[in-house]
Amino acid sequence: MASGTENAAGIYIHLPFCRRKCPYCDFYSVPGNGSGRRAFLDALHRESALRAAPRLNPDTLYFGGGTPSLFTPWQIAGLIEMVRADFGLAAGAEITLEANPGTLRPENLIAYRRAGVNRLNLGVQSFDDRCLAFLGRIHDAAQSRQAIDQARAAGFENIGIDLIYALPGQTGNAWRSELAMALERTPAHLSCYILTYAPGTPLDDQRRQGRVRPLNDTQVAALFETTVETLIGAGFVHYEISNFALNGHPPLWSCHNRKYWNGSAYLGLGPAAHSFDGIHRNWNDADLDGYLDALIHGKRPPGGVESLTVEQRMSEALLLGLRQTEGIDTALFEARFAVDFERLFGPVLADLAESGLARTESGRLRLTRRGLLVADAVAVRMAGCF
Question: What is the C-alpha separation between 227 and 232, in angstroms, rounded?
Fold first, then answer.
């Protein structure tokens, strides 16, 4: 657990290389060999130097992608030292590495741990080989189980597992079996994502062509209920729509991701990475070639910037706050945006309560379990009040 507060900054580094693109994924990634990755790392060091802020002192550092575990432990160690030199790094900072079970070896896991990585997020996605084949993953279920066990043997205590559910034809019993297999490995954290059909992905093309038939809303809701009931029953805290942390003191949630949800500042490095200071958002284009070319010439990579209006910031606070099971602190919302929460949202809140989608208690607006499934729609409806 990081020693800082949620108000401290976080740093995200996007490592965009993958061995093979999964058909459901809409994150920016490209194929790349060793020489391509080395050229990218040189550019990444240049970007970091251009944006250096030694007093930033982030308390979270997150390596996402792509597949960060394609990079060697020594390369990751170099990036950690780069961050420490250019931005500072708080003592006890949460340092997370996303990893694909098909790319890990025991000696590398030990070396990642020694390099300073203290939180490992494994993209297992499924413990069923048929589901893994459908999802286009490069690993099988046996490799996932082995990777988890080897990570623990390497000294990792904070191990997160990503799973995807609501696949076409998936039943409640099949999903319960997957959850049981995950729990057998006693992870500290579970992220359980409902399968999405993002526009432009091969999976969405298959859906439009009728080759894949998504589950209906009732089926998805039933699997969501199964997820929540099973994991809470196993001692996990459900703290965000898709995220569950093993209960402890405090629970082992993702400190870095909570920065996004709570409007904290964060800095993003790498192609497609975003940054936010509370009012201004800027980003690098999802274009590796443009990124490399700009930095070779000593320029900031191409991208964009926007200054959020008060209304935009309020909309984001609703959208991100309602995703969390602790909901929105109405007094803090009022202080931040100089509004009367009840006066602004009163009629909508009453209707949400009557519909069983939300409740207001102890100064917080929280969505019910049913409400969490339509959190985005609720946030859009509330944003229509201003």
Answer: 8
